[in-house]
Amino acid sequence: MEYENGYQQQIPKSKYECLLFDVDDTLYPLSSGLSPECTKNIIEYMVNKLDIEASKVPEMCAQLYKDYGTTMAGLRALGYNFDHDDYHSFVHGRLPYEYLKPDPILRSLLHSLPIRKVIFSNANEAHVAEVLHRLGLEDCFDDVICFESLNPPNQKNSADDTSNCCVTETGDLLPTSPIICKPFENSFQQAFKMANINPHKTIFFDDSIRNIQTAKVTGLDTVLVGSSERKKGVDYALESIHNIREALPELWESVMKSKDVCDSQKIAIETSVKA
Question: Coiled-coil stretches, from where to where (predicted)?
Answer without folding.
Answer: none
